[in-house]
Design a protein that fits this description.
single chain, seven-stranded antiparallel sheet, globular, 30% helix, Pnp Oxidase, Chain A, 154 residues, alpha+beta
Length: 154
């Protein structure tokens, strides 16, 4: 027997998962061909992923040069049951407003804190939003995988 891939999430599970998950790994291409991978906060709305970042960040510079990106969003339940979504897409850079910064931060903290937090960050430097339009998504859910569970003795 050859084991290759755990069962995927359903479309509804992917939508719910991406709205609840807190951190993604944002992967873009450096000028020398290596991959720049960093953890980021993100929003998933209307089938797109939005990431706010300083205008001069490496990820923004990479996206300006090459908009092809990959995001990995995963969580592990109990340390052994990973679930996740891999998003392959095209990122475009747009101006970020203070109000967008507040709504972005509100996913991660109460609104009264998000307002001060976001406005403080927006004063430090100019920010942009990178909007990722997925071309393709892959998912995995080890909680559904009986072969995996048997192999680890669960």
């Amino acid at each position: 027997m050859t084991y290759t891939q755990p069962p995927p999430l359903t479309d509804e599970e992917i939508e719910s998962f991406l709205k609840q998950a807190k951190v993604a790994r944002f992967c873009s291409m450096n000028g020398d061909g290596t991959v720049h991978a960093v953890p980021v906060w993100f929003l998933f709305e209307d089938g797109k992923v939005t990431v706010l970042t300083p205008v001069a960040s490496r990820k923004a510079r990479n996206v300006r040069r090459n908009g092809n990106v990959t995001l990995l969003v995963d969580i592990s339940e109990g340390g052994v049951w990973p679930r996740g979504v891999i998003i392959y897409g095209e990122a475009e850079i747009e101006h970020a407003t203070d109000e967008e910064g507040v709504s972005y931060c509100a996913k991660y903290m109460p609104m009264e804190r998000a307002e001060g937090y976001a406005r403080g960050l927006m004063k430090l430097t100019r920010w942009v939003k990178m909007v990722v339009k997925p071309r393709r998504m892959a998912s995995f859910d080890y909680t559904k995988d009986e072969v995996y569970k048997t192999a680890i003795g669960e």
